[in-house]
Specification:
With 361 residues, the chain is of the alpha+beta class. The protein contains twelve helices and 14 strands. Strands 2, 5, 6, 7, 8, 12, 13 and 14 form an eight-stranded mixed beta sheet that branches. It starts with 16 loop residues before the first strand and ends in a 9-residue tail after the last helix. The protein binds a DNA duplex (22 and 22 nucleotides) through strand 3, strand 5, helix 3 and helix 4.
Length: 361
DNA sequence: TCCTCTAACACTTTTGAATCGC
DNA sequence: AGCGATTCAAAAGTGTTAGAGG
């Protein structure tokens, strides 16, 4: 294939576009209030982050990274079928960035097919040695994607960044699911949860923990026995479905006839939250592509920058936390933190906050 | 008492080495 | 010998839930 020189004019840095691939799935979770399980050993996200890129220079190398940004400065609790503010957020855990395993790769590679961050894992273990992204449970985050032109992960820190984020990817980190509607959605969409969907949970309910034998070594799966026909040994989840419908009815009850906009006005944010539906009122999802023009290099250690800027001060005292992401975005743009020039000279800052991932599979 | 976290569980999907056939 | 397709065991990953602990 003849190799022609890249058309530099057509692929300026500012023309990079990122599109959230599974946006519909994210939105369906977002409407209910996305929850992400975090575990000591690391848990994958579901829905996972999958994006497509355009506008890159085909022959220039890029490094693609993701980190998690605090959506607000609150800690939450699940009470009476809804999320409520439970106080101020915990101090920021160690900031980690997940680098896409294909990095660095030429722009043509990134634009060829969607990028999946399936293997990225979230943990609540601040001493984690596996490079998973560390989060606090019961806090709200959203993934922030960084695209930088660099030939090697080691030169990333000298290259300009472009950052992208998608409001519908905001989630609450939990160690166990709180909202049964989220569980239902996950089971419906996540193939790994099939076992529970098709009757695994039923057997769970019958299981008596106290009678369990001492921790048995995980037996090697026997396909001959594992592949028993569906329906022979498994029971349908009828009871769970009924429960769920009841739950849905009860969780929707506080919405007073489902008038979300009315609720958004009436509800006192300091008392309780139905954050996700409210946020949906604010974002125009007709535009799937979220581009954050960054003509000036962006400092990727947003956690540091976020705390430096008054995102969590007066604004959050006035505005409902449910609006915090939008507020943070607006606030950030007002304060210009996305365009914050990199402090090349501040070695101390750099050494404190790891630039890339320890977590490149 | 309430809330959060952990670990074990049964199951499915994914991965990768071994094998086979061309 | 080399390559692609197939097979299959092991590993990875899932949500649920009882109990521990703060």
């Amino acid at each position: 294939m003849p190799r022609s020189p890249p058309a530099a004019d057509s692929y300026q840095q500012g023309c990079i576009k990122m599109t959230l691939e599974n946006a519909d799935l994210w939105k369906s979770f977002h409407r209910v209030g996305t929850e992400m399980i975090i575990t000591k050993h690391g848990r994958r996200m579901f829905p996972h982050c999958s994006v497509s890129l355009s506008g890159l220079q085909p022959f220039a190398n890029y490094v693609i990274m993701v980190d998690m940004v605090s959506a607000d400065s609150f800690k939450y609790k699940w009470k009476k079928e809804q999320w409520e503010v439970a106080g101020k957020a915990e101090p920021q855990p160690p900031c980690r960035t997940y680098m896409h395993p294909d990095s660095p790769a030429p722009g043509s590679h990134w634009m060829k097919q969607p990028l999946s961050f399936l293997r990225m894992k979230l943990t609540n273990n601040t001493l984690d040695q596996h490079g998973h992204i560390i989060l606090h449970s019961m806090h709200r985050y959203y993934p922030m994607f960084h695209v930088t032109q660099a030939d090697s992960p080691y030169t990333v820190c000298w290259a300009p960044f472009q950052t992208f984020s998608f409001p519908e990817t905001t989630f609450t980190s939990v160690t166990a699911y709180q909202n049964p509607r989220i569980t239902k959605l996950k089971i419906d969409h996540n193939p790994f949860a099939k076992g529970f969907r098709e009757g695994g949970t039923h057997s769970h309910s019958k299981r008596c923990r106290s009678n369990r034998s001492p921790p048995p070594k995980r037996a090697a799966p026997d396909r001959k026995t594992c592949n028993s026909p569906p329906g022979l040994q498994r029971m349908p989840l009828t009871s769970q479905s009924v429960e769920l419908e009841r739950d849905q009815a009860s969780t929707q009850q506080p919405l007073k006839g489902g008038d979300l906009s009315a609720l958004a006005v009436e509800r006192d944010p300091s008392e309780s939250l139905h954050t996700e539906p409210l946020e949906l009122q604010e974002y125009d999802y007709s535009c799937e592509e979220q581009m954050v023009p960054a003509s000036v290099p962006y400092q990727p250690y947003r956690s540091v920058e976020y705390t430096r800027y008054p995102l969590s001060s007066n604004d959050f005292d006035v505005h409902p936390p449910s609006h915090s992401l939008a507020a943070a975005e607006n606030n950030a743009q007002q304060h210009g933190y996305r365009h914050h020039p990199r402090h090349h000279g501040h070695a101390a800052d750099w050494s404190q906050y790891p630039l890339f991932s320890y977590s490149c599979w």
